[in-house]
Design goal:
12 strands, about 350 residues, 11 helices, Rossmann fold, 6-stranded parallel sheet, 6-stranded mixed sheet, 2 domains, alpha/beta
């Protein structure tokens, strides 16, 4: 582990992109046939009102996206409000809110949902009513019903980058890896798949076990404990989100394994602080604040007739001990704010 540990404190590898500016988002990628709603039916009456509708308020990640939306909206001089249930499992609650918003005087809905199938009929109704619908925090280019745009990071590309990071940082040392998956579904499949693709072909890296961690700290702690006790020779743990890798960090500490490499995904503020403190090694920072800025810009462009439609990919970077400080110092782009001044 000497070579890898040394590199983790002396080098940083950048993922897909570094800094992005909301007004200059990447060129959209066309969506699959039948997934693009008609943009010519949209219009800007000069007094815009936009609803941001995440799946729940319990997730800091979606609040961070909302902070980016609000910042871009303030700069553009348009009204934005957020409406969401407290719990991510309250699908019916979100569907009722979408139904209510459609009847209100809104020009656009920036939507993220945990149940695309349940939302599809309501999205259809919104589009038919001339409301712009932009899906955020997604890279699914074929939403079940046509939408005007999709904004989000490529989950597979992001974790592919941290897989490549591990290969480069390993310096050829033999490593055994444990993987902590999320709940079964698209997000876990893409994130774990990207990481596995990133390390494919590296003969020195072996995945010895992969189990689910439930997307939360407690689940990551349990999964990390199970993996490390069953496979005491594990050198690396990769988790499909930051909450789970923070839980795994607790497990590694409890077992006295201070030399493990711990890799996450999201760029959660708490995880960034743990990287700074040395408890977590690196994460894929998916920059939710910037994602929100871009989502608002795409929505305004759609209403103004300046958006061609499609999927807009937002930036990701690999953050480790070498480059975490400037990220934490940009506190206005983080939610929640860091626990102290860096």
């Amino acid at each position: 582990m000497t070579s890898l540990s040394k590199f983790l404190t002396t080098a940083a590898v950048t993922g897909l992109a570094g800094t992005a500016f909301a007004a200059d988002y990447p060129a959209p990628v066309p969506m699959q046939e039948g997934a693009q709603a008609d943009l010519s039916a949209l219009s800007n009456d000069g007094d815009l009102r936009i609803a941001y509708m995440p799946p729940a308020t319990e997730f800091n990640y979606y609040i961070a996206i909302g902070e980016g939306i609000e910042a871009a909206a303030a700069e553009a001089g348009v009204e934005v409000f957020m409406l969401a249930p407290q719990s991510g499992s309250d699908i019916n609650g979100q569907m009722g809110m979408i139904q209510d918003v459609i009847t209100q005087d809104v020009d656009a809905i920036i939507l993220s949902t945990h149940d695309e199938a349940a939302a599809a009929p309501l999205v259809t109704r919104a589009v038919e009513n001339g409301i712009a619908v932009v899906i955020v925090n997604s890279d699914i280019a074929n939403f079940p019903t046509p939408v005007h745009g999709v904004v989000g990071y490529s989950q597979r590309n992001g974790t592919h980058a941290i897989g490549e990071y591990l290969v480069e940082m390993s310096g050829g040392d033999a490593l055994k890896v444990g993987v902590i998956e999320g709940l079964p579904g698209y997000h876990s499949t893409e994130r774990v798949g990207g990481f596995l693709d990133g390390i494919e072909g590296a003969d020195n890296i072996e995945v010895v076990a992969s189990i689910a961690g439930g997307w939360n700290v407690e689940g990551g702690n349990t999964a990390g404990m199970d993996l490390l006790q069953a496979n005491p020779d594990i050198d690396v743990l990769f988790a499909a989100n930051d909450y789970m890798i923070m839980g795994a960090a607790l497990a590694s500490k409890a077992l006295g394994k201070s030399d493990l490499v711990l890799l996450g995904n999201d760029g959660d503020t708490a995880a960034l602080e743990e990287i700074s403190a040395g408890s977590v090694s690196a994460t894929v920072n998916t920059s939710p604040f910037i994602m929100g800025q871009i989502a608002l810009d795409v929505t305004l462009d759609a209403l103004n007739g300046d958006f061609a439609g499609g999927f807009v990919e937002t930036p990701t970077t690999i953050v480790d001990a070498d480059n975490v400080l400037p990220v934490l110092q940009d506190a206005d782009s983080l939610y929640p704010k860091p626990s102290k001044t860096y």
